[in-house]
Specification:
The protein has 504 residues and is of the alpha+beta class. Helix content is 43%, strand content 21%. It folds into 3 domains: 163 residues, no CATH class; 81 residues, no CATH class; 239 residues, no CATH class. A 7-stranded antiparallel beta sheet has the order 3-4-16-15-17-13-14, with helices on one face. β13 and β14 form a beta hairpin. The radius of gyration is 35 Å and the shape is elongated. The chain starts with 6 loop residues before the first helix and ends with a strand.
C-alpha cells in the first residue's frame, strides 16, 4: 500500500482551517439569535470592557516608556498617566520629585503587568460565565459538523471536498457515526472543553481556574501529539485516526499497489460496498473469489435443526433464511447420498455450541472459527470449549488448513487431485475471502495447491479448505452464482448442513 506524500499534510491543514472557519461562522450566527442566547448583549458589553482594558494596558506601557526617556516625568506626563484609573495608585506611590530611578521604573512596570494580569483573569472568568451558551453552541456546532454531517457525507466536509480529501476506514470496516463523533471529540477538543464547561458551571472560581489550566495543558499535549503523528507517520494518521481506525486519503492521488492482485482486491466501484466478486481461472476451471470488506458481518449459517432425519438445506435457501447476501457451504456432514442434517464435528453459533456439546471438552478437531468482530482463527487439535475461550463466536470443523499466519501449506504430490473446491480465508487487513471453484470430481477443478496459490496471491494470511465436491456452492443475492457439478446443479445446489454467510 502507499506511503502518502507530505503534501497531504498541507492539504489537511488547509481543509481543517476552512472547516474551522465554517464552524466558527455558523456558531457565531447562532449565538446572535436572542432565542438561543439571552445573555448575548451582556457578553458583548463585557467583552468591550475587556477590550478597552487591554487597549489601556498597551497605551499606558507605551506612554510610560516614552515619558521615561530622560529619566524624568513631567507634570503633564504624570497627569496623562493618572487618566488610566486602573493604574492610578501605582504612579502616585512612586512619583514624588518627578524623577524615577531605574529600579522604580522596573517596579512600576511589574506592578502594571500584575494589575493587568489579575484584572484580565477576572474578566476572562466573567466572560466565560456569560459565554457558557456561546461555548455550548460552538461545541455542538463543531460536533455536528465534524461528526454527523461528515458521516452523512461519507467522510467529507466542505474543507475536505475543496482539498480533495476524504476520511476512510483504516481496516476496511465501516466507519460508524460513533467513529466520526469520537474523532470530532478528540481532534477538536470537544470532550475536554465540554468538561471545562461543567467545571465552569458547577464549581467555584478557584477550582475552575485550576481546572482551566490543566485542561489547557492537556489540549496542548493532544494537539502536539496529533501534529507530530500526522507529520512523522508514513500514513499520516493522527491520534484521532489511530483511536477511531480511520485515515485521510487524497482522492485525486492514485493509490500505489504492490501488484495487480492487491489492486484488484482493494479497488471497488463504491467504497461502501460490502463485497466484491472477482471471476478468475483456477486450475483448469472457473473460480470465484468474493472479497468481503465487512468481516464483522460474516456468520456461520446452518440448517434449521440438526439430526432430525432431514437432508439439510441448499445454501440458497439457508442464506435467504438468515438474511444473507453472499453465502458458501461450510463443513462436512454424514452423507446418505443426498445430504443429511448431521454435522461432522462441533458447530458453534453466536457463542454457543449447537452441535457437539456433549464432547466439548474431549473431542479435538481442526476448528475453523470467527470472532464476533470478524477475525478468522484456525485452531489445530482443539476442543469446542477451547475455541470458546479463544473468543470464537462461530465455528465448524474441516480442513486442511491452507495458510496459517502467512505460512502456506506444504503439499507433497497431489493427494486429493482435481475437484470442485471451496475455501475461506482472511487478509492481514481483515478482508474475508470466499473462494469457490467449479468442476467435476476427479475430472477438473482445482487442486489444493491451486487453492493455496490463489489465496496467497490475493494476500490471505489465514485460510482453510471447506467441503468441496458436490457440496460446492456460492449463493449471491438469492441465486446460485457458481456452476456446481451436474448432480448437484439439478437440484439447485446440494443439500448441506452448514455454511458461511455475509449477513445483512
Amino acid at each position: 500500500m502507499k506511503n502518502l506524500d507530505l503534501k497531504i499534510v498541507l492539504k489537511r491543514v488547509g481543509a481543517y482551517m476552512i472547516d474551522i472557519i465554517i464552524t466558527i461562522c455558523l456558531a457565531t450566527l447562532i449565538t446572535t439569535i436572542p432565542v438561543f442566547n439571552k445573555k448575548y448583549q451582556k457578553y458583548q458589553d463585557k467583552y468591550q470592557e475587556y477590550t478597552q482594558i487591554y487597549t489601556d494596558y498597551t497605551n499606558i506601557k507605551n506612554l510610560l516608556s516614552s515619558s521615561y526617556e530622560d529619566s524624568e516625568i513631567s507634570e503633564e506626563e504624570y497627569n496623562k498617566l493618572l487618566e488610566y484609573n486602573l493604574y492610578k495608585n501605582i504612579f502616585s506611590s512612586y512619583y514624588e520629585d518627578s524623577k524615577i530611578t531605574k529600579d522604580e521604573y522596573d517596579d512600576i512596570l511589574e506592578d502594571i503587568n500584575k494589575t493587568y494580569t489579575n484584572t484580565a483573569k477576572e474578566y476572562n472568568y466573567e466572560l466565560q460565565k456569560l459565554g457558557i451558551t456561546n461555548s455550548l453552541i460552538t461545541l455542538i456546532t463543531t460536533l455536528v459538523y465534524f461528526g454527523i454531517i461528515q458521516c452523512l457525507l461519507k467522510g467529507s466536509t466542505l474543507g475536505k471536498k475543496i482539498m480533495s480529501l476524504k476520511v476512510v476506514s483504516a481496516n476496511d470496516k465501516k466507519i460508524t457515526i460513533f467513529n466520526y463523533l469520537l474523532r470530532s471529540l478528540i481532534i477538536n477538543n470537544v470532550l475536554l472543553n465540554g468538561i471545562n464547561l461543567i467545571f465552569l458551571s458547577y464549581t467555584s472560581k478557584e477550582i475552575f481556574l485550576q481546572c482551566d489550566n490543566i485542561i489547557s495543558l492537556l489540549v496542548s499535549i493532544i494537539e502536539a501529539i496529533t501534529i507530530y503523528l500526522v507529520i512523522t507517520r508514513p500514513d499520516h494518521r493522527g491520534l484521532h485516526d489511530l483511536l477511531c481506525n480511520t485515515k485521510v486519503i487524497d482522492t485525486k492521488e492514485k493509490t500505489k499497489y504492490k501488484d495487480k492482485y492487491e489492486e484488484e482486491l482493494y479497488t471497488r466501484e463504491n467504497p461502501d460496498d460490502d463485497y466484491k466478486v472477482i471471476d478468475l481461472k483456477v486450475g483448469n476451471s472457473n473460480g470465484y473469489l468474493v472479497a468481503i470488506y465487512k468481516p464483522e458481518k460474516v456468520r456461520l449459517i446452518s440448517t434449521k435443526e440438526f439430526n432430525v432425519g432431514g437432508k439439510g438445506e441448499r445454501i440458497i435457501t439457508m442464506c435467504e433464511r438468515y438474511g444473507g447476501s453472499v453465502c458458501i457451504n461450510g463443513g462436512g456432514f454424514q452423507d446418505s447420498g443426498y445430504g443429511s442434517d448431521i454435522p461432522i464435528g462441533v458447530v458453534i453459533q453466536d457463542g454457543e455450541i449447537t452441535w457437539g456439546a456433549d464432547t466439548a471438552d474431549t473431542t479435538r478437531d481442526n476448528i475453523i472459527g470467527l470472532t464476533k468482530d470478524g477475525k478468522l482463527k484456525l485452531m489445530t487439535n482443539a476442543t469446542a470449549n477451547e475455541a470458546l475461550k479463544a473468543n470464537i463466536n462461530d465455528a465448524m470443523v474441516f480442513g486442511p488448513f491452507l495458510i496459517v499466519n502467512g505460512k502456506p501449506l506444504e503439499i507433497v504430490g497431489d493427494p486429493w487431485g482435481y475437484a470442485p473446491r471451496v475455501a475461506i480465508g482472511q487478509t492481514k487487513s481483515g478482508i474475508i475471502l470466499f473462494l469457490v471453484v467449479d468442476g467435476e470430481n476427479y475430472i477438473n477443478g482445482a487442486s489444493l495447491q491451486d487453492m493455496v496459490d490463489v489465496l496467497t496471491r490475493y494476500g490471505a494470511y489465514n485460510a482453510a479448505n471447506l467441503d468441496g465436491g458436490q457440496s460446492s456452492s456460492l449463493s449471491i443475492n438469492g441465486k446460485l452464482y457458481n456452476n456446481p457439478p451436474a448432480a448437484a446443479k439439478k437440484q439447485g445446489g446440494r443439500y448441506v448442513v452448514t455454511g458461511w454467510g455475509l449477513i445483512k
